[in-house]
Design brief:
With about 230 residues, the chain is an alpha/beta fold. The chain folds into two domains: about 1-120, Trna Endonuclease, Chain: A, domain 1, CATH 3.40.1350; about 165-225. Helix content is about 60%, strand content about 15%. The chain contains five helices and six strands. It has helices spanning about 1-10, 60-70, 105-140, 145-200, 210-225, and strands at about 15-20, 30-35, 40-50, 75-80, 90-95, 95-100. A six-stranded mixed beta sheet has the order 1-2-3-4-6-5, sandwiched between helices. The longest helix is centred in the last third of the chain and has 57 residues, at about 145-200. The N and C termini lie far apart (about 110 Å).
């Protein structure tokens, strides 16, 4: 019976460490060390006690609970051909010890190990969240964090100052070029006017861009620049 359960556990839970207890040694018959799906994390230990008798004995529960304390295990299971009233449907719990029939042993093992894995993940997540919060608080109150923020602010100030200087320089350049363009237009208008005076006012066609409104606007801008 012990060998059958041991083999069934090994086949169904290949990541787990299934350790049979040698005959003559006090304790449970099989120790199942439950591991995570990756096999890297130990999630708990299940002790299995196997009984092949015609009558249920309550003393088995007391003995197995003592074995759990000695081994530091998490869960205890008795697999028996004779079941107590609390396990009349094949699976039950008697004073903190799980009890199952032979046919229900692997089903119970699946439920128990899944619970151990989930509890381990929850504990790990909670521990990490608490530690993460501590790390975040320590960092944001550290001198290192302050220095990094100061460096960001200094970089922003330098870039903003550089942009302001470039804006002033470009505005000066744009005004200078604008004045140059205005002088070019005025020079062209002067040349055109001189030619009109030589050949007669109506002899030359009217040129777009050298009409009176534009020239008046240029003159106004020149006057503003002189001020």
């Amino acid at each position: 019976m012990e060998l059958d359960l041991e083999n069934s556990l090994k086949v169904n839970f290949q990541n787990d460490d299934i350790q049979p207890v040698a005959k003559g040694i006090k304790g449970a018959d099989v120790k199942q060390i439950v591991k995570s799906p990756s096999g890297k994390t130990v999630c708990g230990t299940i002790l299995w006690e196997l009984k092949r008798t015609k009558a249920w004995t309550q003393g088995w529960v007391t003995k197995l609970k003592e074995d759990v304390r000695k081994e530091g295990a998490d869960v205890a299971v008795i697999v028996s051909t004779a079941l107590p009233e609390d396990a009349r449907n094949g699976i039950g719990n008697v004073d903190g010890v799980w009890v199952a029939g032979n046919a229900q042993a692997i089903t119970l093992a699946t439920l128990l190990r899944d619970t151990l894995i989930k509890v381990t993940y929850q504990k790990t997540a909670s521990a990490h969240q608490g530690r993460k919060a501590d790390l975040i608080y320590d960092f944001v109150t550290s001198r290192q964090f302050v220095q990094q923020i100061e460096a960001i602010v200094e970089s922003y100030s330098e870039m903003n100052s550089q942009i302001a200087k470039e804006r002033v320089a470009y505005e000066r350049l744009w005004k200078a070029r604008e004045a140059q363009l205005q002088r070019i237009v005025l020079s062209a208008a002067s040349v055109y006017g001189s030619m009109q005076g030589l050949v007669g006012g109506n002899a030359l066609p009217q040129l777009k861009g050298l009409d009176l409104p534009l020239l008046e606007l240029i003159d106004d801008n020149e006057a503003l620049n002189l001020k």
